[in-house]
Automatic annotation (TrEMBL):
The protein's name: LacI family DNA-binding transcriptional regulator
Region described as Disordered: 1-21
Domain HTH lacI-type: 19-76
Keywords, sorted A to Z: DNA-binding, Transcription, Transcription regulation
Source organism of the structure: Kitasatospora nipponensis
Biased composition (Pro residues): 8-18
InterPro entries: HTH_LacI, LacI/GalR-like_sensor, Lambda_DNA-bd_dom_sf, Peripla_BP_I
Lineage summary: Bacteria, Bacillati, Actinomycetota, Actinomycetes, Kitasatosporales
Annotated GO MF terms: DNA binding
Amino acid sequence: MTGSDPAGPGPGGPPPRRPTGRDVAQLAGVSQATVSLVFSGAEAGHRVSEGTRQRVLEAARGLGYRPQAAGRQLRLGRSGMALLAVPNLQGPFFGRVLAGVHEEAARHGLAVVVSSGWSAAMLAEAATTSRFDGLLICSPDDGQLGELPSGTPAVFLDADPAAAGGAPTVELDLAGAMAAVVAHLTALGHRRLGRLRSTHSAYTFRVRQAAFERAARGLEVLELGVSLNRGESGIRAAATELLTRPDRPHAVVCDDDVVASGLYQAAADLGLRIPGDVSVVGIDNIAVAALLTPPLTTVDLPGERLGRAGVAALAGLLGGEPVAPVEPLATSLVVRSSTAPA
């Protein structure tokens, strides 16, 4: 039996052989060196065009070709793996970040390992072993950050640039987000705002609070702290306390959509209508926001874009390229049915 299929024995023939880089090069019409550059993630510095890169990847997919990780690690001194550290993998926003990370990592030939609930010690240990080529550290709590060993490629997402030790950071435009929220509510005539603020010790929530205070300057604000560690019952209790005040606000800004959903429950318990009795705005635009009754007005935080931008910056570090500062990623207000005129 004859044929050009590199893995193609007929029934009863010898075991199929694995497709090689040479097979990919022949099918894509490029050199083996180009195939190696594409799968090492070094193609950008060698002027391999995007069209050529895509042709190589398509040929590899068609043949079922996978570069051997061990051989690649020996050649490049790399494992081809990156660690994504998030505070809580069950958080819907972090699922969006992970989707973007995986999408971009595939373009650079990187595999991603995810760690949730990590500590500074674990992160330092990961940074000093050869298991990971680089680290992506997303929305860390203050206590999770220790000093990373020098020379470890790392990129911080939604994190304090001052704590990054000079490493690249990718931030969200939270100031623009809060300005849009307050502008929306004041345009509806609201001058007394309620606020359910997360007490989590994370940079992202401090930035949200500072941005809200700037945007709401000159307005009356009734604010309560919410501990996300107390779960649904804690959120509901704080929301109930806010909504049963004699000077109850008729519009409430929540630090995320999970907190907003707890306020929905508290309002229902008290017989209050949304938005007839109280307008509600969240932040994150997780999937549940559109499923609430009524659908929640919220700020879309582009988690997928955050993940993609982080991996692109990390790939640049691994390739020895200078990484330009990344402008804060734009957010957008998604107006649904949970807000109404005062």
